[in-house]
Amino acid sequence: MSDDAQTCPKCNSPYGYPDGNLWICPECAHEWTLAAEEKTEEVVAGPKFLDANGVQLQNGDTVRTVKDLKVGGDTLKSGTKVKSIRLLDDPIDGHDISCKVDGYGSIYLKCSVVRKDS
Hints:
This protein has one helix at residues 34-45, and strands at residues 17-19, 22-24, 31-32, 63-65, 69-71, 74-76, 81-82, 86-92, 95-101, 105-109, 114-116. It is mainly beta. A three-stranded antiparallel beta sheet has the order 1-2-3. It is elongated, with a radius of gyration of 20 Å.
């Protein structure tokens, strides 16, 4: 990439131009610094699915719930074991795990309410 053009991190316009320490996109008016863009790329490349303890989750893992959860009219108790989770690239209402729980059927969970089972 040349020094006189920068791709906008918000809309991917190739027409970003420098203005002092900032880069400006003429198409969406987004302003950014190159250092901020590099930090954003690091965050995106980092682990995406972390449990309540910060441990990386993977498809097929076994997890346990860390607190009581309302599921319909019932309560899924803390410590309930959930086998063979499936991680969702496109979260559904903020839920990023699809799984089946005995007695409840197919449900969605958030990574923040489970811990990886050892």
